[in-house]
UniProtKB/TrEMBL annotation:
<keyword id="KW-0547">Nucleotide-binding</keyword>
<dbReference type="GO" id="GO:0003924">
    <property type="term" value="F:GTPase activity"/>
</dbReference>
<dbReference type="GO" id="GO:0005525">
    <property type="term" value="F:GTP binding"/>
</dbReference>
<keyword id="KW-0378">Hydrolase</keyword>
<keyword id="KW-0963">Cytoplasm</keyword>
<comment type="function">
    <text>Small GTPase required for proper nuclear import of RNA polymerase II (RNAPII). May act at an RNAP assembly step prior to nuclear import.</text>
</comment>
<keyword id="KW-0067">ATP-binding</keyword>
<dbReference type="GO" id="GO:0005737">
    <property type="term" value="C:cytoplasm"/>
</dbReference>
<dbReference type="InterPro" id="IPR004130">
    <property type="entry name" value="Gpn"/>
</dbReference>
<dbReference type="Pfam" id="PF03029">
    <property type="entry name" value="ATP_bind_1"/>
</dbReference>
<keyword id="KW-0342">GTP-binding</keyword>
<protein>
    <recommendedName>
        <fullName>GPN-loop GTPase</fullName>
        <ecNumber>3.6.5.-</ecNumber>
    </recommendedName>
</protein>
<comment type="subunit">
    <text>Binds to RNA polymerase II.</text>
</comment>
<dbReference type="GO" id="GO:0005634">
    <property type="term" value="C:nucleus"/>
</dbReference>
<comment type="similarity">
    <text>Belongs to the GPN-loop GTPase family.</text>
</comment>
<dbReference type="InterPro" id="IPR027417">
    <property type="entry name" value="P-loop_NTPase"/>
</dbReference>
<dbReference type="GO" id="GO:0005524">
    <property type="term" value="F:ATP binding"/>
</dbReference>
Amino acid sequence: MGSNKVAVLVLGMAGSGKSTLMQGLKSYTSRHKLSSYFVNLDPAVRKTPAFEPNIDICDTVDYHELMKSTKMGPNGAIMTSLNLYATKFNEVLSIIESKDVEFVFIDTPGQIEVFTWSASGQLIAGALASSMPVIILYAIDTVRSASPVTFASNMLYACSVMYRLRLPIVLAFTKTDLVAADKAFEWISDPQVLADALQDDSRYLGSMSTSMAFMLESVYSNLPVAGVSAVTSLGMDDVIEKIREARVTYNDVFLPELEKAKQLKAEKLAGKAEEAYRSWEDDWKADQGMDF
């Protein structure tokens, strides 16, 4: 497995600034001559994404025609489009593998659950991980995260995505040209400050979020974070640095765990095969009236 190339799955809630972040990454890597390759896995875009992907799911699957012909809803059509594309993803992977680049940025559907909680999303992430380091770049709207409850909810979802895909994650607080990410960083580094802010919210949700904040402290307090404005490029260098650090984390921590899991699965399958063979052998000997 090549150690230099890294696939970056760009995820984020609707309105998080994910698409603008992709555009900013394209502009930054081009301007600084960082070898990169861009893939769009969002079939619902109405026109070619502004970051001009090298590979676009829309060239293969017509989401709007699919929705029209099957009378599916938006989410159902997105999931079906992704499922269809996943069956041919080995061809996409072969193209990606052939490119001599450092970064492969992959935009995902705006309906984040369609990718993170679907079999096709797991298949695509797993296929990439079998070939190269893979990390998650999770976009969080800094403006919305000024609310401690929204911030806590975002962090909870980010942690669930990380555990679901079993990949290292980098948190990118977007739109810092509008609101600085200092408060978010403080809440991450000091859960007591976040708990105090949450307690000021008298609603039940505030109390629940306070419990979540302490429960997840050991997880998200160690996650790499960066504040970034895709409009001004301020903080983009930090995002790239955090991605490179996460690549090292993947190779040092996540890859050994993945290989261990693969080995255990292979041993389990081998054990089942051996058990099935022994059962068949016993049945065959019994049928033959053999003494054993």
